[in-house]
Amino acid sequence: MKRFKASIIGGSGYGAAELIRRILIHPEVELVRVSSIDYIGEPLSAVHPHLEGRTDLRFEKLEPEDAAAGCDVVLLGLPHKVAANVVPRLLEKTQAKIVDLSGDFRLRDLAAYEQYYGGKHPAPDLLKGAAVYGLPELNRDAIRSARLVASPGCFATTIILGLLPLAKAGLLEGAVETVGITGSSGSGITPTATTHHPVRAQNLRTYKPLSHQHMPEISETLTAAGAKSFGIHFVPVSAPLTRGIFSTSFARVDASVTPERLAEAYAAAFEGERFVRRPKKRLPEVAAVSGSNYAEVGFELGPVEEGHRTVACFSAIDNLIKGGAGQGIQSMNLVLGLDEGLTLEDPGGYP
Amino acid sequence: MKRFKASIIGGSGYGAAELIRRILIHPEVELVRVSSIDYIGEPLSAVHPHLEGRTDLRFEKLEPEDAAAGCDVVLLGLPHKVAANVVPRLLEKTQAKIVDLSGDFRLRDLAAYEQYYGGKHPAPDLLKGAAVYGLPELNRDAIRSARLVASPGCFATTIILGLLPLAKAGLLEGAVETVGITGSSGSGITPTATTHHPVRAQNLRTYKPLSHQHMPEISETLTAAGAKSFGIHFVPVSAPLTRGIFSTSFARVDASVTPERLAEAYAAAFEGERFVRRPKKRLPEVAAVSGSNYAEVGFELGPVEEGHRTVACFSAIDNLIKGGAGQGIQSMNLVLGLDEGLTLEDPGGYP
Amino acid sequence: MKRFKASIIGGSGYGAAELIRRILIHPEVELVRVSSIDYIGEPLSAVHPHLEGRTDLRFEKLEPEDAAAGCDVVLLGLPHKVAANVVPRLLEKTQAKIVDLSGDFRLRDLAAYEQYYGGKHPAPDLLKGAAVYGLPELNRDAIRSARLVASPGCFATTIILGLLPLAKAGLLEGAVETVGITGSSGSGITPTATTHHPVRAQNLRTYKPLSHQHMPEISETLTAAGAKSFGIHFVPVSAPLTRGIFSTSFARVDASVTPERLAEAYAAAFEGERFVRRPKKRLPEVAAVSGSNYAEVGFELGPVEEGHRTVACFSAIDNLIKGGAGQGIQSMNLVLGLDEGLTLEDPGGYP
Amino acid sequence: MKRFKASIIGGSGYGAAELIRRILIHPEVELVRVSSIDYIGEPLSAVHPHLEGRTDLRFEKLEPEDAAAGCDVVLLGLPHKVAANVVPRLLEKTQAKIVDLSGDFRLRDLAAYEQYYGGKHPAPDLLKGAAVYGLPELNRDAIRSARLVASPGCFATTIILGLLPLAKAGLLEGAVETVGITGSSGSGITPTATTHHPVRAQNLRTYKPLSHQHMPEISETLTAAGAKSFGIHFVPVSAPLTRGIFSTSFARVDASVTPERLAEAYAAAFEGERFVRRPKKRLPEVAAVSGSNYAEVGFELGPVEEGHRTVACFSAIDNLIKGGAGQGIQSMNLVLGLDEGLTLEDPGGYP
């Protein structure tokens, strides 16, 4: 008999597939309900074939409060804007803890939200601190006591983890240039021209260069972590793999900064962190973390030039796990007072 | 404190990587030792990057009996021919149960072994029943009480599971034609011309057509399960994916056989089997089982022609899990008297 | 000044993209017009990005006879059923030669068309010999003098070329079992769930097993070439590559047939054929023909069993070139009295 | 009867495969000889399967001057360091024009060569202007009259073309940060751990960050084109595709620079260039140029920040064609006084 009950609102996407998988094998949390606006009455395996025979649950059309009924926690796999309409009702009409995978409550800056997500925010008052940004490496204690967790974006998680050591050490100041390369699962479950296999399988292209909606999320978070007058120029690139993000961020540090100093900053930033690795003999790579909740970080420091040095900060994650549902499960475990790593310790398959 | 101790002999390959991963997250079995002839003294993550920070174990150069010292079970990730030299020493000098992932003890027919694997068998006497063929769906009870388990081959597992219902129902007689399509991880960890990404990524080719070493393994097993005067014409094909095997076998059944009769045979053959799925609304596919220990089976029955009908039997697995180390873990759990599914219930990630 | 003028009806698909590419670099044929029901008024590069800056042509909405006006040849890149409505008007109202890439005029058996393509055929009378089946290796002379060429299907081309030597040598009799594995470009330009990169990139699955519409096309053609009481059990499989088809066909020949006899049959069947290769030291593979109009064929002969031997016939092509538009260009060259190989001699890039 | 004769020294690699393909279909140049230190006496198709049946040439072991005998041009597909030993002998003992695909003669700065390529240069005097850097968009006239052409590197070509408009317009000053993402064919024909399909197919990783040997080549070339106090921080990333490079370079321009001004600079830099495209309605992508000699360039201009704006410059090419052998053929055509585009006009297949 499991101690906690959970339900998922918006259960037909890839993020939800990963949430469902994790809860189905969770020792303490029972999945009691999955709501969706599509596939009503169909088994979960109709959309998630890997769940064939693993559960008798079917997609249900439910009001948010009905979806949450009797649950200790509700996880939202809804699109941006939709989540923002559901969360207020859950806060008002239920006692359930909420873990939201959407971008609707990650920002505190309403203007930034409206600029990058477009249109009005349905619940602007909630941006003023109602949610905790669900990055355990930065906000673990706050997450533990949070009612509402805004789980980080996939690019944002990757880029923030790569730069967090510099921010925490007071070494991150001014503009950063970042290229984040992502697999196709980040585009979601709906087929589009840019995820059509004949083209995607041999393509590299950018989209939303210098205007991706994760930019303000990254800036707010790193500034809160210690970055000064921080700004990011971010270019996302689509690559032909299914899972994984690799990011490269160029920052400028003082000429006096040595590799040893940077290594100390990385060690200090992630001391005791179970899911962030600093490989000793190699740089981060996607294949090492794909299929797991682990992130890998590393750096290369350039020569002294005009009083400063350029450091290239690297990070790699699985966009659907540490960059999405896995990190959401970390937050679910935390808000329920459970071991943060439940269902997430598996290093995943390789290759 | 875990109840059982295990060691791995031959720990540097992909099969061993999957064995190590499973035992590291196993609730009842502790990994105490990993031997190898390469990477002596290096951490496991030197070869298996996904294990970075997950274990302090290092590769050790050990005699078989030393590798097995104090262990309840030893798992072999050795190449063919090498395993055949290690197993006799383990049988003689230790009490440990043995799960061998190699092909050295799968056959009972010495002549077939020498024809398909080449050269002499180092321990021919052991072919006469010393090992139990580790397919739980066929030999579960025998595996439970076995000292030595010969874990099935990847193609063999796929093809056997697809035809097992016909064999058990007495519907499998005479020649079968099979095409098995495999991902590149089946070729192992050593780079070769046929796994070189620039070519493999856009290639389809056959190798060992009508002469693959899994043919006698398939024939012996299906004959033992009820097939009559069975013979297989097997064409393996390499495809550009990392994990997974999809097999199509053409068999001829009596004209009186109906789809309902075949559905009954499939249901009967796999009733209560946790890791074999018969999807109701679709045919088997690799993406649904990739990353998990599940197999999917299905069939399509052709029209009546000259007194018979042709049935196409389909099956899909992950070659490294159900087709390799995962199935080996199933046998390990069984020989230790544990729940067969420990560490294997995870449906895996999708996509 | 090029000697001939061509237009394309139905110019927005992958087949059309290959037709346009070839004609743009053709020394004797000028592309004067491309019609489409979509993208009217837009440059061809709006759909075919590789044509950026290569032509000023734009998609036009045109009646068939207007599309054909002043043209020596019209190439059809239309879907099945649509082509069948256009061809009669072109035959009636124009003098242009017609090369149709659709399946509408490949069959002579009306019942088979209605069974495999569904519904009624818009111009059933034309099935009675109005079209020449555009496989140069079988019908070269007839193509030269044809008014209407029905260009073969991608699977059909692959499978027929692999079995043609047996048919011509009188060695092909009775049932054949075939597995054809295809890349994703065969599914066309419209994104669907089965071509969605996150899933397709790691999937192997079958569709239309034992019921694919190319089956009657293969039977009619091989029977015309000499096969006796021929029948095919065909299982198509989708694989994660963009271009290429690899097919394996199992046939039974008399026990007296030797590898030498089969080699003679293959040599005789393709003597002087520029685009069909019989590699001496390896079996056919997709990577060797991908990006070119070449086909590769080969075989493996099994042991004597019960008075016969089983032969596995292999073939590989690029589905969009030899299996589609490239073969269509071969026919265009032939109907115009040109060198059959114009624009097709390029062996393509490797890897 | 073709007007010119060519031979290739170092014919067993991917670059050579592309050179051979082009010359085999070249209207004016005949391939008379291919030398190699491996595969002596074997047909070219033993290594290059797409050439099966296309030529009777075999690999020959030849002294450089013998390889060049009677040839108007010699193309070198040799590794770095090896080419540097062959070129002086060709210059001394033959009259043939030389197109070298290696990096041995691209730099003028001997110290940079020794730092980035390691060890001593075998012919340092030749670095002082003996070779013309084979980028037609920059050095067309010099190439026409060159005896020795040093064909550019793959990353260098991509990055230089993306930044050339800024350099020529006097807008490129100071440090640039670049991420270049490459397909696996750039690693060459020899299988390695980083091109092993099981891992490469789902990996993103960096190598030689901030220390890649193309950095001085890029700096020398862009400085010669007008860049001031230019420096590059370059991070190469490996991605799971076979062909293609996509590069993103971040440069800082004055706050007064507008998108229109940059568009003018791009238009001016590539006016009349047949192989450099500036798509109007999209940004550069690999799929549009893969399989062709075309490059695509584009940019995105950021907002005004502290007196400057950051511009992200994008470019995409096929690493083996415009980034390698195709560009080498452009130079071959130029040194022979032929139309630069012979055999290169094909827009390639899509997808």
UniProtKB/TrEMBL annotation, chains A, B, C, D:
The alphabetized list of GO BP terms reads: L-arginine biosynthetic process
A molecular function annotated in GO for this UniProt entry is: NAD binding
Descriptive protein name: N-acetyl-gamma-glutamyl-phosphate reductase
Q: Which residues catalyse the reaction?
A: 154
According to its UniProt entry, the function of this protein is described as: Catalyzes the NADPH-dependent reduction of N-acetyl-5-glutamyl phosphate to yield N-acetyl-L-glutamate 5-semialdehyde.
Q: Which family does it belong to?
A: Belongs to the NAGSA dehydrogenase family. Type 1 subfamily.
Query: What pathway is it annotated to?
Result: Amino-acid biosynthesis; L-arginine biosynthesis; N(2)-acetyl-L-ornithine from L-glutamate: step 3/4
* Main location class: cytoplasm
Q: Which reaction does it catalyse?
A: N-acetyl-L-glutamate 5-semialdehyde + phosphate + NADP(+) = N-acetyl-L-glutamyl 5-phosphate + NADPH + H(+)
Source lineage: Bacteria, Pseudomonadati, Myxococcota, Polyangia, Polyangiales
